[in-house]
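REQUEST ID: PR-0412
SUBMITTED BY: lab tech R.K.
PRIORITY: routine
TASK: structure prediction, single protein chain
INPUT:
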Amino acid sequence: MGKVTMRDVADRARVSVSTVSLVLNGRDAGRVKPELCERVRRAAEELSYAPDLLARGLRTNQTHTVGLLSDRVASTPFAGRMLAGAQRTMWEHDRLLLLVDCAGDADVEKAAVGTLVQRNVDAMIYASMYHRVIDLPDVPADLPLVVLDARPAVDAGVAWVVPDEEGGARAAITELLDAGHTRIGYLTDEADVPAVHLRLASVRATLAEAGLEPLVSSTPDSNAAEGRTAAARLLALPDPPTALFCYNDRMAMGAYRAAREFGLRIPDDLSVVGFDDQEHVADGLAPGLTTVALPHYEMGVWAAERVLDLLSGKQIDDAQHRMPCPIVRRESVAAPRGAR
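STATUS: complete
OUTPUT:
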């Protein structure tokens, strides 16, 4: 059997082609009797009817495709859940996501924008591998654009979503304060990125509200080796911290190593909290790492939903959104030994 058409559905349901069009395009409300709608939908299902998106695009002036420019997101499994959230949301609304990973290359990005525009995408999402400030890609002024995991350097009225770095850091410190810790260390990266500055500021502010000062240990990078170095620096103090909050889960992995070298058990002698909830790291450590989750999937969904809002003409009330970063509790936090 060849391609099933609306005429085939109409013949099976014993209705007119115009009735089939109204029902399958969601324009039947108040115009087609419910029993006829049911007959049309049943006939379409029985015949495995698939709409002609090219023909629909000619009628609606939309291709039902959305371009996604990825700055190393597609090649970074940790951040890839943003793509999963955006793709699933688009798929559920009968739209196809066309992905191009630019790998941080400005020339590739410029060419990718041109290619997606030539393919008449209805809108575009720009996704960054990590929270940073960006220059917006040069897209046509009339093409809807949403930025994912980044903030534009210049406010151009574009919707964007980033993690709530400050709220996540506050949640981590509060978790340790609630457990009874008053001597808390913070291991941080020295990179000039929003996450570093915002999390450190939140750590200082949250502890200040409790009348405490943080013990900060910074390193040039945020990997496990640097985390070990940063943690060892604090654990060697005459009055060492009883808890550590780490800029990310990889630094927390290094803190675990440093704790073993100092003969400390987690969480009996030292509590540790990470940030990211990185798969195979946070849940792979022993004991499991209590951490703050980066809401990659949720941010991807948010970006896709804002694109759909723009395409339907809806007003976006929350165009600059900071997605909450929840605590994921495992076994690395306990009350300090002297408080038990």
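NOTES: The first helix runs from residue 6 to 13.
REVIEWED BY: pending
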